[in-house]
Amino acid sequence: MRTAFGQQFDVPDGYLNTASIGTPSVAVAEAVERAVREWRTGAGRADEFDESVALARRGFAALIGAETDRVAIGAAVSPLIGLVAASVPDGSRVLVAAGEFTSVSFPFAAQAGRGVTVTELPLDEVGSRAADFDVVAVSVVQSADGRIVDLEALRRARASGTRVVLDVTQAAGWMPLDLGWADAVAGAGYKWLLSPRGVAWMAVRPEWELVPHAAGWYAGADPWDSIYGLPLRLAGDARSLDTSPVWFGHVGAAVALPWLASLDLTAVRSHSVGLADSFRSGLGLEPAGSAIVSVQQPDALRRLSDAGLVVAGRAGGARLSFHLYNTEADVEAALDALCRTSRS
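^ Aminotransferase class V-fold PLP-dependent enzyme, sequence as received from the core. Prediction below:
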């Protein structure tokens, strides 16, 4: 058992895979376990999950620097970004980063029948070229290797008329964010936000009127009054984009997100990035300022896995991710696995 930032985590030594699956705190896991027990014994009530949905929604808004009434809920990032992609005008020109996570790029590429074109450019060119496009859609932190997009360049591009769509799945939770200026900001909960899979959110600026293509009962102005019959009576804010909540996912997120939002995220970033850069230094690499490290050494994934560390294989390399529950011992174990094997 580890203690980090005031919470306990039953995370094993050498777990460096938060970028794939975040490990919940004991408090998060216990909240979900209680909800499952109530379900199993017939004690659960559908309307009792509304509070969890609201708490998690507020937590996400706080983590990205947006107003709560701008945040819609979903089960994954791609359907949320799909609402954005389906709402861009015919013939829109969209810019994405080369090698971008496809939950960001595929929804726009699927609009090709309407004349929507998608251009890939290297990440370090996205900021400087964004103003040449109608929409730029990009992850704040790249999933494959942890590189960070130039947010200030994107903000300048937005001032010139470009719509900016951001995915914060690999950033929110360890990186302080102030993204209220962006047109749409989406993120999934099961990685750095330490929540169950099946919860995601998207903040949308009110002047961007997206069509609620997936509107259902939970998108209603009063969800419990919109479960039968017409007329259409949707919420007047971003809740009109809601889809029916994955209950147990929101139960966990209602504990995890408010707690994360209450932390000094500058300290969380310092801790997580400090470990990642310490690992990079041990490999002779320059600091990168990201909590994700991609190792391109031959057999790195096999070496780390054989040593009992949990990492991921991504884009031809071994991907390690350092979160608030990791320690210097995890860094040393990873370096020992790579360097000892290299020497032998």
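The domain at 2-25+264-343 is CATH 3.90.1150.10 (Aspartate Aminotransferase, domain 1).
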